[in-house]
Amino acid sequence: MRHQGMVSALVEKQRIMNSRQSRRTATLQFLRYALTGVMNTLLTLLVIYFTKGILGINPWIANAAGYGAGFVNSFVWNKFWVFRSNNGVMREAIRFCLCFAACYLLQLLTVWLINECTPLGDMEFRIWRIAFTGYGLATLIGMIVYTLANFILNRRFTFKTKLHR
């Protein structure tokens, strides 16, 4: 009887330690994900400005090139650094595209709902001399929704490991 109680206590202690380790891993992954997002934004802007400003390419093509470079950059950093996945590249690339599309649509829906269904859409206010609009604030909220949803989907679906099932 006493032996069974000791085993139960050890099992519970191991469960708590695993839970703490999982939270630490998720936090570290999210910090890496955020840093990757900053690097990705800078790369996207650099490609857009270089292709349009220096090479003189059409702005729409420059924009597509920038976002394309950012998309590929994001996949590579997320696969190999953020989530450290060893799974098949093609499978994860397809899943990454699906997650991107789902999160982008969720972001669009968020912005649309805030803009069209709340008084925020018609608002405009100033802080110092900078004008802010309801659409701008809705876009910021949509970006936060996108970022959180994309992290969760990539962690649980795209780059899923046995620990995250």
Automatic annotation (TrEMBL):
Q: How does it sit in the membrane?
A: Multi-pass membrane protein
Q: InterPro entries, from UniProt?
A: GtrA_CellWall_Glycosyl, GtrA_DPMS_TM
UniProt KW Transmembrane keyword: yes
Keyword Transmembrane helix (UniProt): yes
Where in this chain does the record put each GtrA/DPMS transmembrane domain?
Answer: 32-159
Where in or outside the cell it occurs: the entry states: Membrane
Gene Ontology CC, one term: plasma membrane
The similarity annotation says:
Belongs to the GtrA family.
User: Which Pfam families does its entry note?
Assistant: GtrA_DPMS_TM
Q: Which GO terms describe its biological process?
A: polysaccharide biosynthetic process
Principal place of residence: membrane
Q: Where are the transmembrane segments?
A: 30-51, 57-81, 93-115, 127-153
What keywords were assigned to this record? Membrane, Transmembrane, Transmembrane helix
Listed name of the protein: GtrA family protein
